[in-house]
TrEMBL record:
<comment type="pathway">
    <text>Pyrimidine metabolism; dTTP biosynthesis.</text>
</comment>
<dbReference type="InterPro" id="IPR003669">
    <property type="entry name" value="Thymidylate_synthase_ThyX"/>
</dbReference>
<feature type="binding site" description="in other chain">
    <location>
        <position position="154"/>
    </location>
    <ligand>
        <name>dUMP</name>
    </ligand>
</feature>
<dbReference type="GO" id="GO:0070402">
    <property type="term" value="F:NADPH binding"/>
</dbReference>
<dbReference type="GO" id="GO:0006231">
    <property type="term" value="P:dTMP biosynthetic process"/>
</dbReference>
<dbReference type="InterPro" id="IPR036098">
    <property type="entry name" value="Thymidylate_synthase_ThyX_sf"/>
</dbReference>
<keyword id="KW-0545">Nucleotide biosynthesis</keyword>
<feature type="binding site">
    <location>
        <position position="181"/>
    </location>
    <ligand>
        <name>dUMP</name>
    </ligand>
</feature>
<keyword id="KW-0285">Flavoprotein</keyword>
<comment type="similarity">
    <text>Belongs to the thymidylate synthase ThyX family.</text>
</comment>
<comment type="function">
    <text>Catalyzes the reductive methylation of 2'-deoxyuridine-5'-monophosphate (dUMP) to 2'-deoxythymidine-5'-monophosphate (dTMP) while utilizing 5,10-methylenetetrahydrofolate (mTHF) as the methyl donor, and NADPH and FADH(2) as the reductant.</text>
</comment>
<dbReference type="GO" id="GO:0006235">
    <property type="term" value="P:dTTP biosynthetic process"/>
</dbReference>
<dbReference type="GO" id="GO:0004799">
    <property type="term" value="F:thymidylate synthase activity"/>
</dbReference>
<feature type="active site" description="Involved in ionization of N3 of dUMP, leading to its activation">
    <location>
        <position position="181"/>
    </location>
</feature>
<dbReference type="GO" id="GO:0050660">
    <property type="term" value="F:flavin adenine dinucleotide binding"/>
</dbReference>
<dbReference type="GO" id="GO:0050797">
    <property type="term" value="F:thymidylate synthase (FAD) activity"/>
</dbReference>
<feature type="binding site">
    <location>
        <begin position="73"/>
        <end position="75"/>
    </location>
    <ligand>
        <name>FAD</name>
    </ligand>
</feature>
Amino acid sequence: MDVGLVQQLATDEMICMAARVSTIGRNALDRDEEKDQGLISFLLRDRHGSPFEHGSFTFRISAPIFVVREFMRHRAGMSYNEESGRYRELEPVFYVPAGERPLVQVGKAGQYDFKPGTFEQWFVASESTRTAYATAWESYQNMLAAGVAREVARSVLPVGIFSTFYVTCNPRSLMHFLSLRTKSDDAKYKSFPQVEIQMVADQMEEHFKRLMPTTHEAFVKHGRVAP
């Protein structure tokens, strides 16, 4: 998974200014770092969310299509643009589970977990996906060579092929995404994300932590609950 931060306009200071304008008006520009930390912690603890909408992150992400589709379940405060198989020939980049990726489902829907598979299970999964990808790619190329439109030819490609998209979000929507798509012992409400989207979310969180350290610290402190 490849996650790049394209641009950002999000700071701890902006969160504080947005919050203080409600009580002190134009003097909200005045700063006090110690008070800023307390204010952000208070906002996260008591879930005063609107100040965290003042800012933005834009990420460029390359991931399998099944991860992209999970991403687009997140709609509030998230904007997307994705490469189109109608307008360009897609590249033969496919996802194959790594050896350490848990393969065996244990339990039932809503309560299940995953555990590592045997070598035989990993081998079957790896070889089966590679074979399916090779067959699908050959069919795709055959149709393109015969003059079939890209928008028709792409229909044979599997959801394991990579796609690239841009997503822009504010700090509040990013925290909501992270609360659902990461797994952490610090979380008040446990989440059980699919491994592949968590791989993306973990990289996004590193950018969030670096650029908004006070907000991120308070987010973790108060149970990783979005305000």
